[in-house]
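User: Hey, my collaborator sent me this sequence without any context and asked if I could get a structure. I don't really work with proteins. Can you help?
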Amino acid sequence: MRCITCENISFSMICKSCQNNFLNTQLQKREIKDNFFVYSFYKYDEIKELLNAKYYFFGDRIINILAKLSFAKFSQNFNFEDIVYVIPIDDVVKETFSHSAILAKHMKNKYLKIQYNCLKAQNKIKFAGKSLEYRKKHKRDFKYNGKKNIKIILVDDIVTTGLTILEAKEVLEKNNCEVLFALTLSDAKIC
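Assistant: No problem. I've predicted the 3D structure and written it out in structure-token form, which is a compact way to encode the shape of the chain:
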């Protein structure tokens, strides 16, 4: 097969050379509400085309590579005094995979436990490319059926307005959970 970025022969969808040269992470921090932060590994423009792979049958392989280069490295250095639960936002399998579940899978360590299929949007409207006003009028209507009274890191692929993450945080807090921060692959506001 060929690397999708440089088109050289490769055993991986993205060759090791491109992974090393073009996919170096640089953790970005954005405050989306009073003292609540989202950390992102890439600027959106750097991986926009790779993120769009989530809409194709081979997208899981691309998301896995990005997760190994970012989420897995983050989890290797993460420690905390208590167990922290990693919750992917709306990790429903669409077509053949869930991109948020793949990202969360790479976060496992002795301080981090993953809780799948517990934070689901009841509203199935797609928000990609929609305006801020549209997003405000059409909430995700999350339902949480996971553990209560826990500390949480939220996981998603991209943060744009931050409304989805804030809505998820609100639902979790109503269930006596403490959301420490959110972690995403990219931030659409950081170019």
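In plain terms: The two ends are 31 Å apart (CA to CA). You can pass these tokens on to your collaborator as they are.
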